[in-house]
Design brief:
Radius of gyration: 26 Å
Structural class: alpha/beta
Helix content: 25-40%
Distance between the termini: 44 Å
Length: 697
């Protein structure tokens, strides 16, 4: 999305000075738009459909102009061609680009970015002409907006925009052939509209989406069948995938080709880089390189007959059979525990009773200040972790280094004047991997990196079996931190939905079953933290919105089990133990009821980039418990001024009762440096004190 914005010379007015004479962004300024500069906030960042990848949201208004600037897409095509590869440029399509954009500040009420379709199409036409002149035989336009029912645009608006857009794009003389891809879900009712555009190829997600029905004339179009899951890492059942391909062949398309359901950016590169994974587990997996081999194998079977790939088909069946019978995949005690769950396991006492008891126990001021959990992971921490992993630093030495860092973080927070402290999570390599290494049923990779946003990558864990907690995971670190201060220190856990969303979860049991298994493991941890004297426990669920299904018919079931697993984790505590949660970088308006349904005592949410736009929606929904809207964006290195934070808090108190308002950053501080963190948190505390005084609190 940012590539498209840069290619079409589209930046908010606050960054217009960064454009050169041609209207283009330098690489340095490209990053400035993404990260912010001085008082200029960066573009809003949010999740890309139902993945853990993030995109930067274009800000458009009725006066936005589009002009193709630079030649970056052609340059990339030529770079590959010079090395002997003729590639298919992949570009976000015009309908999806506009449907995922947001109205810029100052845009009139009712403005719809899709209204700009006639204005943006000439830039796309020029891009097609550029690539055609460079010799590109194909262009792929990604239009995943067509499968997403959670957007502001209706299905009818999207279909009308699609028809208008591709009537223009396909009329370009001597153009490359066009493939239209719709990953992450089924086209279903939009399939006819896509066929009617006349594009040469339609790429469908045949993993999450239903197959097209008979009765549509497909004789002029190729169907690129995304039968191999690009969103997860399990080895394909080649026999069942061939059956799907054969069914598609009966629909009368000009041709059927084989591909993955999504791009492979969501899975690691290759299993060849994994030397420590159990060999049996590896035989059940396929990363990007192995998935490509599976695609080629399936294509060979489709073209030349299943007999030509008989050995590969048998190998995949054997691997699936071994996986089903492996120890730890099905654990009787775990299954019995989830089967025995009762409604009372998912509920707590009334919010009013909890609020009074917690106020008495915690003795906090109005607008209490806190952070989300992690503090900067300095070079010394990373070196100690690496040395411990290599055996160069013993466990005693490593743990002492972590205790030293925790003590420093506690002292720093007290000096800054924060009200509720955290231990900083020095001992954690990652907010999911840390728990995956301590829970049964998970494995971790050495080099299984995938992109999360910008240049930041994450290494998802692999949930391969039934999940349980062999022993406490966080209690000794939390109690050590609490022993260093009289102020409350939050216990910090990652919630079941986020552990699932940021791992590769198994595909042989329901998501509900997996969520409840993780929920029970975390419930035991929460209870142990409470028993150890921890008065506030945060169970983070930043991925709650991320997993929301793209089809509305699936929302109710998802919200039931996802919210239920959080409540299962947190409902076993006393009324005076305060439960926090954290959500970030999503369109929260779509899950307002779920936020309320979590029944947490305090919910912190990303709100700085969007300037508190979620708070009126929460107020309108009747949300009546503690809320901590993030007052500065930790994904940017800029330090917010006192005035900036105070302005956001003053916006917040217009929608939130000050008695319910907390003050915190948008997210954890792990990726930031100490110098900027110290300055930012001091400004946060100063602004909170000023607004307390304004409110007479």
């Amino acid at each position: 999305m940012l590539d498209a914005s840069a290619a079409f010379g589209v930046v908010p007015d606050r960054f217009s000075s960064l454009l050169d004479e041609s209207g283009a962004l330098s690489l340095e300024n490209y990053f400035t738009v993404a990260r912010g500069q001085g008082d200029n906030l960066p573009l809003e960042m949010t999740k890309w459909f139902d993945t853990n990848y993030h995109y930067l949201v274009p800000e458009l208004g009725p006066d936005t102009t589009f002009k193709l600037v630079g030649t970056q897409f052609v340059d990339q095509f030529n770079e590959a061609k010079d090395q002997g590869f003729v590639t298919r440029p992949v570009i976000v399509g015009p309908v999806t680009y506009l449907a995922l954009a947001k109205p810029a500040d100052g845009a009139p009420a009712g403005f719809n970015p899709l209204d700009l379709l006639p204005a943006i199409l000439p830039a796309y036409v020029e891009l097609i002409e550029q690539l055609g002149a460079a010799g590109a035989p194909w262009i792929q336009f990604d239009e995943p907006a067509l499968v997403n029912e959670n957007l502001a645009a209706s299905a009818t608006e999207l279909a009308d925009a699609l028809s208008a857009a591709y009537e223009v794009l396909l009329a370009v003389p001597q153009r490359p052939q066009i493939a239209l891809a719709a990953p992450y879900g089924g086209l279903e009712d939009q399939f006819t509209a896509v066929v009617n555009t006349g594009v040469e190829t339609i790429a469908i997600d045949a993993v999450k989406g239903a197959l097209p029905t008979a009765g549509i004339d497909l004789s002029f179009v190729t169907i690129a069948a995304g039968v191999n899951d690009g969103h997860n890492i399990w080895r394909a059942n080649l026999e069942s995938k061939l059956a799907v391909l054969e069914q598609l062949e009966t629909l009368g398309a000009k041709d059927v080709t084989v591909t993955t359901s999504t791009s492979l950016q969501h899975v690691p590169y290759t299993l060849d880089n994994e030397t420590l994974l159990d060999n049996e587990l590896k035989s059940w997996l396929a990363f990007a390189q192995e998935k490509t081999v599976e695609v080629v194998t399936l294509a060979n079977g489709l073209i030349n007959g299943v007999a030509t790939i008989a050995q590969e088909v048998q190998d995949s069946k054997d691997a699936l059979s071994r996986r089903a019978g492996a120890a730890g995949v099905n654990v009787l005690a775990v299954r019995e525990a989830t089967a025995a769950l009762k409604q009372s396991d998912f509920s707590r006492e009334s919010a009013d009773a909890r609020r009074d008891a917690q106020a008495e126990r915690l003795q906090l001021p109005a607008l209490p200040t806190t952070t989300i959990g992690s503090f900067p992971q300095a070079t010394s921490i990373r070196k100690a972790r690496a040395a411990h992993a290599k055996g160069e630093l013993g466990t005693d030495g490593y743990e002492q280094a972590m205790r030293d860092e925790i003590a420093q973080v506690i002292t720093l927070q007290e000096e800054i004047g924060l009200d509720v402290l955290v231990h900083g999570e020095a001992e954690r390599n990652d907010m999911v991997q840390y728990f995956a290494e301590l829970l049964d049923g998970f494995a971790v990779t050495e080099n299984g990196w995938v992109q999360s946003y910008g240049s930041r990558c994450t290494r998802p864990s692999i949930q391969w079996g039934d999940v349980s907690r062999p022993e406490p995971m966080t209690v000794r670190w939390a109690t050590y931190a609490q022993s260093l201060t009289r102020k409350p220190v939050k216990g910090m856990l990652t919630g079941p939905v986020t552990i699932m969303a940021w791992s590769f979860v198994r595909d042989d049991v329901s998501l509900r079953e997996t969520a409840n298994q993780i929920g029970l493991a975390l419930r035991a941890e929460v209870n142990d933290l409470e028993a150890a004297g921890i008065a506030a426990i945060q169970v983070d669920e930043p991925a709650l919105r991320e997993l929301l299904p793209l089809k509305k018919r699936d929302h109710a079931d998802y919200l039931d089990w996802s919210v239920g697993s959080f409540r299962l984790s947190t409902s076993g505590v006393r009324v005076d133990t305060q439960i926090h949660t954290h959500l970030c970088y999503s369109e929260f308006g779509e899950v307002i009821d779920a936020i309320d349904g979590l029944n947490a005592d305090v919910t912190s949410i990303e709100a700085a980039r969007s300037r508190m736009e979620i708070l009126p929606e929460l107020a309108d929904a009747g949300y009546s418990r503690g809320v901590g809207p993030g007052v500065y964006d930790i994904h940017s290195p800029r330090v917010p001024s006192v005035e900036e934070v105070q302005e956001l808090l003053e916006l917040a108190v217009k929608s939130v009762d000050p008695a319910l308002l907390w003050v915190n950053p948008d997210c954890g501080l792990k990726t930031r440096g100490y110098e900027e963190t110290n300055a930012s948190l001091k400004n946060l505390v100063t602004a909170a004190v000023a607004v307390r005084e304004q409110q007479g609190a």
